[in-house]
Amino acid sequence: MAQSLVEILPPKVKVWFAHAVAGLITADGIVTESELVFLRDTINFLENVEEINQVVGIVKNKEKPILQTINTDPKTAAMILIHLATIAIADGSLDPSEADYFKYVGKKLGFDATYSEEILQWGKDNIMLEKRKKGLLKRAKQNKIF
């Protein structure tokens, strides 16, 4: 079984990532159940209770944490941003405040706003494809193709 992105991150980057996730899911002021699933998955990789409590506090207080610039290789940084895009659009929509925070996170990873917007578009395209796939499967089932 392949390791998840978060599993392979160094401890310091895991904490940074958890703060970025917390900021993304609180950016629009609404925390959905689908976003909480991502949060739970993320904090499971944190190594101590204090770190977990800090991230949970960010979400409870609906804060957008200030992030430090993180130094990692470009491929890992891109993988982190792609993973964060899936979280940003987990609820099926993207509020302007979420998009702004996402671009802020991208900048902290070393990317410009244009690249961050491209990744967000990739995420939106994937959601549309997933909805289309579900529709096709539903139609197939209704037409008794299976």
Q: How is this structure best described in words?
A:
- It contains 7 helices and no strands.
- It has 146 residues and is mostly helical.
- The chain has a single domain, classed as TerB-like (Orthogonal Bundle), CATH 1.10.3680.
- α2 packs parallel to α4, α5 runs antiparallel to α6 and α6 crosses α7.
- The chain is globular.
- It starts with a helix and ends with a helix.
- The model has no long low-confidence stretch (mean pLDDT 89).
Quick structural summary:
The chain is mainly α and 146 residues long. It has helices at 5-8, 11-26, 33-43, 49-60, 74-88, 96-108, 113-142. It has a single domain, classed as TerB-like (Orthogonal Bundle), CATH 1.10.3680.
Percent in helix? 55-70%
Q: What is the annotated CATH architecture? A: Orthogonal Bundle
Mean of residue pLDDT values: 89
Overall shape: it is globular
Query: Main β-sheet, in a few words?
Result: none
Strand segment count: 0
Strand content: under 5%
Over the alpha carbons, how many angstroms does the gyration radius reach? 16 Å
Report the order of strands and helices: HHHHHHH
Count every helix, treating DSSP H or I runs of 4 or more residues as helices: 7
Structural class: mainly alpha
- Tally of discrete structural domains: 1
What ranges have pLDDT less than 50 throughout 5 or more consecutive residues? none
Q: What is the CATH topology? A: TerB-like
Q: What's the CATH class, please?
A: Mainly Alpha
Q: What is the CA–CA distance across the termini? A: 30 Å
